[in-house]
Amino acid sequence: MDHNVYEQLADVLDTRGVGFPRTTSGVEFKILKMLFTAKEADLYMKLSLEPEPLQVIAQKLGQDADALAAALNTMAEKGLIIQVPHDGMVLYMAIPFAIGILEGNAIRVKEDPVFANLVTQYLDEGLGAVAAKPPLALRPVPVNRAITVSWPIATHDDLREIVRTKQFIAVTDCLCRTRKVHAEDKSCGKPTEVCITFDLHAHMAISRAQGRQITAQEAIDILDKAEAAGLVPMAFNSINPSGVCNCCGDCCGVLQYVAKNSKPAKIVLSNYFAVVDKAQCVGCEVCLDRCQMTAIAMNADNIAQVNLDRCIGCGLCITSCDAGALSLALKPETERQVPVEAAP
Question: Has this prediction a pTM greater than 0.90?
């Protein structure tokens, strides 16, 4: 009976967010059983992805409201669902495994090496490859100093402007970098406290003691620090994103698998690409190290050249080019894309 409910839970999770693929080893079920009791698995499947009041859920399920509240509050404390404050009451909603439950258990990744190893195994055997299939849950956003003012910048491509519109902001440690350290004893050496969340996701991070509240200016300072360290800003793939990760190709569960694709530019939502001014390039090769997609190589004349099939338009190469040989160009209008209204 218990295994059957986890099978059903896996099926439900596979329809949400980036999915929840099955593996040959069955590692995903080990993760589910560490996260959910059988009763919690059953209750999760009955919850909506839209916030609902306790009384509505209790009536729908035919359960006592007080007992149900206790169960839901426990699940929220475990990072399995979200509590949403609204007009003096608390609403409850289900969340996907990723982005959602996995991120809600970032502390467990840090404190429980068994769990961290299982997550790593699941990324390698199934979740990582699925997360890197379009439509991606995350999209690269050009770093601030890489965009010129020769054309209007779409609001969804201006992270700092997005940050300034947010009422509640939190910063947490990068789940992927944390997992790499605790599961594989490896560190890329890049900053860890760089994942910024907004509104509901920020409230969830703080209620789980996984992050701290910050101001908009502090968030912008973190973006500047991440850019200097060579991290790619990856926003949740919506016009009004609920968060932004700052990722590297060594650790990021999405970026790492995007880089394995032969044509990363074809699977990400990005409206820019890097261009080299051959007359200005001095052959310093700094841009080669900054590019997370290995999209830049030196030609026979020791001039940088960009592989447009691999360039995701993040702009990290531009901000490190002292010679001023690199710039971002806007794709033709027929090739530009607009993020979805709401995050997946």
Answer: no
